[in-house]
Amino acid sequence: MNTLQDSQAGVISSPFHAWLDDWQLKASEEADGNDFNHLTLTAYSGEGASRFGYTLKLAAEGPLVLHGEAGFSQKAANGQGVHVLQPALLADNRRRHPSR
């Protein structure tokens, strides 16, 4: 592997870019690289002539939704958990609400 982005999965915080195999979620190039209000999702599957994929440009329609207590969702009795922030996104002119 020549670079971090040659690996199977990873995240770069600035400009935001997360990937797993042939799936990518990136801050839109038109916006600031740290702007989570405008994201581009690309996904591909298959090889050769059967390769299929799509690109979705996502735009937030409201503030980030904080899950749990102020964005922290405890998962274990010893206090371990995750921080979760999720935007309400608009894709293909249909509103997508995160589950609360």
Structure commentary:
This protein is an all-beta fold. It has two domains: 1-60, no CATH class; 63-100, no CATH class. Helices cover 0% and strands 46% of the residues. The protein has a seven-stranded antiparallel sheet, with no helix packed on it. It has a two-stranded antiparallel sheet with strand order 6-9. Pfam families: CrtC. InterPro entries: AttH-like_dom_sf, AttH_dom. Residues 6-81 form the AttH domain. This is AttH domain-containing protein.
Helix and strand topology:
Layout: E1 9-12, E2 17-20, E3 23-27, E4 38-45, E5 52-60, E6 65-66, E7 72-74, E8 81-83, E9 85-86, E10 89-91, E11 94-96
Antiparallel strand pairs: 1-2, 2-3, 3-4, 4-5, 5-10, 6-9, 7-8, 10-11
